[in-house]
Amino acid sequence: MQSLRELQCAVRRSLVEHDDGAAAVHIVSSGLAPEQRLAVYRNTFDGNLANALRLSFPAVHRLVGAEFFEGAARIFAHQRPPCSAWLDEYGVEFPHFLAEFPQAASLPYLPDVARLEWAVTRALHAPDVAPLDAQRLAALDPADHERVRFIADPTISLVRAAYPADAIWRAVLAQDDAALGAIDLAMGTFTLLIERRVMGVEVTRLDERAWRFVEALVSGLPLGAALEVSPGPETASLLAEHIVAGRFVGFDLVERAYPSVALENAS
């Protein structure tokens, strides 16, 4: 007799791998073949995952159409089934899947739009955390400033895109065909900051230097190292802007400043 775990694994193989053999022997027919009963659950499984992806990637859904999206979602579901029952977390690998999906090759900007949408989804579902109290920083010995390692607000993501993903995303969701048609796909690389603010999720374009600075801070480099990664007279005002905007929720002090060789590798 199979254990509960073995039976669950058999049902999983039916849902994900379309292998009904091990599960079918434990299902009572009662007028409907075991394989047909399993197919009902498989359709529900596929439909729920496709719907979860549609909610997280609405612009991608509109760009490719419902039929294409559902087909891609079903293939993705069987290649990358969820690891958790919390479907808000499902889809982190979908942008990479689209980048490798041959049928999407005619839309080279699609993975960038998907990466942006996943960052937006992540921002929407991230927990609320109180922003950093700037007085704690003010109380530090100036000699310790370069050792400060900031903790980013959990709603923040950074996306580097080869296409104007933010403009495409906004035009598609607004159903503004004129704006979509006016977008120049050859505009170059875009660096985007995604965060949840009081009025909702905001997507902001940053110039390269500003992006490198905040990327260094968000990735966990101490302030001294971040200043070497992105030097310039405007970094003090950029840091102040990030603190005032509540983009950090805390900090700690590293034991020592990162050596220059580490900074070169990080950049």
Task: Kindly describe this structure.
The protein is mainly alpha-helical and 267 residues long. It has 2 domains: 1-107, no CATH class; 127-267, no CATH class. Helices cover 52% and strands 12% of the residues. The protein has 14 helices and 5 strands. The strands form 2 sheets. A 3-stranded antiparallel β-sheet has the order 2-3-4. Helix 4 (58-64) packs antiparallel against helix 7 and helix 6 packs antiparallel against helix 7 (110-125). The radius of gyration is 23 Å and the shape is globular. The termini are far apart. Residues 260-267 have low confidence and may be disordered.
Uncertain runs are 260-267
Strand order of the largest sheet: 2-3-4
Question: Termini separation (Å)?
Answer: 58 Å
Structural class: mainly alpha
Global geometry: globular
Share of helix among residues? Answer: 40-55%
- Strand percent estimate: 5-15%
What count of domains describes the coordinates? Answer: 2
How many alpha or pi helices?
14
Biggest sheet architecture = 3 strands, antiparallel
Overall number of strands: 5
Q: Could you spell the SSE succession in H and E letters?
A: HHHHHHHHEEHHEEHHHEH
